[in-house]
Amino acid sequence: MSDQYKIQDPVKQYGKATPEFEQQQPSPGLETKMHPRPDDGAGTYQGSGKLTGRKAVITGADSGIGRAVAIAFAREGADVVLAYLPEEEADAKEVVRLVEEAGRKAVALPGDLKDEKYCEQLIAKAVEELGGIDILANIAGKQQFVKDIADLTTEQFDATFKTNVYAMFWLCKAAVKQMKPGSTIINTSSIQAYEPAPILLDYATTKSAINTFSKSLAQQVAAKGIRVNVVAPGPVWTPLQVSGGQPEEVLGEFGAKTPLGRPGQPAEMAPAYVFLASQESSYVSGETLNANGGMPTP
């Protein structure tokens, strides 16, 4: 945990990866079983009313970046619908508690984003339980490394696209029908869209698609007063990495190739989502905000 409000050297704000980071869990992975635990901002994030009265749907809200965003959104005054896999219930319960401790409403709706009906239910649940939706944060993602295309199955390729791209499409389609002017959509790309790793062929391809989808949709819905933007994280310490996202043997140097020389933490990503969800970014749409430790992007 680091004080996000104290000026300090970003190189030293969080520690570098060490051999302790070398671990593996069955997919989808639980944050409660990681060592060291990622910093979700629960001990430091201070809200200032940027999202007072807002109604958000957050996918991947149980852990990692989605968890940090749920905490930040709640402390900024938003009620939230939390989407996550049923296997991630242990992590999700902690997030529900943290949202409620912030005085906001938490609606937990586990399910599989590869199911179009579930995606539609998430938006319908927000309308029913929260009275509407004005923020959609698509953060959940599937990442499984495969070293050789010969071993990349059609089943995995399809599941990666269904989770990362199709679900985004289904959720955006349903949400736009319910959103009023001033609403925002925030999708999640990656440094992999610009510097694709050879072992992440399917994942990197989806992240590039997310950028393009978002830029197109932003233009389409601008006249409705809806903004669409993207956050593109670099290497961030989350359960995604330890549940097949990266080979175990490379995690001891995870993030070392960034100019800052360390992995990012979910708490460092959340403010980017808050900015793009808030009215402070009213003239920003179709943009990708890169939070990647200094790695150059187009």
TrEMBL record:
Keywords from the named record: Oxidoreductase
Protein origin, superkingdom: Bacteria
Pfam families: adh_short_C2
InterPro entries: NAD(P)-bd_dom_sf (IPR036291), Sc_DH/Rdtase_CS (IPR020904), SDR_fam (IPR002347)
Region Disordered, annotated ranges: 1-48
CDD domains per record: SDR_c1
NCBIfam families from the UniProt entry: PRK06128.1
Family listed: Belongs to the short-chain dehydrogenases/reductases (SDR) family.
UniProt protein name: SDR family oxidoreductase
Species name: Paenibacillus tritici
